[in-house]
Amino acid sequence: MQKTIEIQNGVVRHPLYRFKTPINLSISQGEQVAIVGDNGSGKSMLVDVLTEKHPLLLHRVHYDFSPSKSKLVSDNIKYISFRDSYGTIDSNYYLQQRWNQYDIEDAPVVGALLEDAFNLAEQAARRDSSLSEDDLHALTVDRTRLREHLYRLFHLNALLDKQIILLSSGELRKFHLTKTLLSNPRVLIIDNPFIGLDASTRSQLHELLSLLTHESWLQVILVFSKTDDIPTFITHVIPVSDMTVGCKISRAEYLESQQEPPSHVLDKEKEEQILSLPYSEGQDTAITPGSQQVIDFRRVNIRYGSHCILKDLSFTVMNGEHWALSGENGSGKSTLLSIVCADNPQAYANDIVLFGRTRGSGETIWDIKKHIGYISPEMHRAYRKDIPAVEIVASGLSDSIGLYKRPTAEELGVCKFWMEVFGVGGKVDTTFFKLSSGEQRLVLLARAFVKDPTLLILDEPLHGLDLKNRRLVKDIIETFCKRHNKTLIMVTHYEEELPAIIDHRIFLKRH
Fold it and tell me: Are 227 and 259 in contact, with CB atoms under 8 Å apart?
């Protein structure tokens, strides 16, 4: 059987990152592969080898992309990374950009970007001198059909006139999938393919990839930390553990070897330390005396141009309640949270009460933020500075992106405590870009807890985490929220991710 990709005794040339043993693997035509492993195990580095981002010492990766005419890796292998879930990397991006009307007006729209991707694929095909006019016409017809199918599948027709900056993380995921598939790749690599997608879209994506792999030459390589997500059309699994690439095995063999995920991970000592934490100064005054309202929305409306995001939304969160916020991609979940976190200027045009105070009655955004611990896809994207992990955590003390105020020795001790709790105590001095995406998420979670907030807002907090770390984070949330006057709002598209302490729910509908 012809091998699409083959590596024999491959050693990574990079001076800082290398596997403990040489890489030996092959992916044959017709095989659909999952690369699986815990956070920090080396999955992303293996993808970098496959895409030639990290060259090998002495040996090279061997490719056979037939029947594709192009021999270039860049033409045949397309990679949708973890960060692509949150938008294209842009050094000018800042946390509140998605809610700023001036930035929105200047942003390109979805339809134009997808049309550009379609036309680029057409131009690439026409540069192939081996294709006849009939071949080119057939390719155009096939790609047009695929585009129509993708637009229907992901409900993109409703997004074509929407600025890219307004898309939710789930909608961005759909956009990147569509844009990439229109380029007609021979091999498609997707990091954690189902994160950020609602249940219906996850099912539809599963069906689409299954159909494409059966009816075309497309081969997929899916990268998973959440190993119970491996779809049925995957034929083989390549396990990666502790910077070692394991032998390729069948999907059935891999699933048979898996153990049940742990029911509890947080050890008793850390649990007791969290429960016995002293309350931070000012926590008793977080809510206006005589009020128990943490959040009160009174017929809130949020609109950008012709797009209605929230319409006549009313709901109240009381002190000590624990809410699950859910809804389809694009229903306005992150927009709602941006109002609570004082990141969205449209809050001033609505009747909103936060911590017992009417929004716009003289409080600053910092008066609001000091009571909130927050993590979101936007925040993960906004961190573009390669600074030590402990400084990322310390920035949560002052609600900044980056560290602009040196923490005291006592504050550094608190930061290191929370890093230990989240299992990244050994990464204190490791800079952000040198962490795996899962380790980055754990550092940002530590940042959300570091000031012992009254209100925890966790928007898709378990993105990219392996099964053990997912259970650990749930344990931490449940323990933290057992304490007096701790309020929680959590967003997830996976019901099993919700902690046991959830006692209220709200479901948003897309308008």
Answer: no
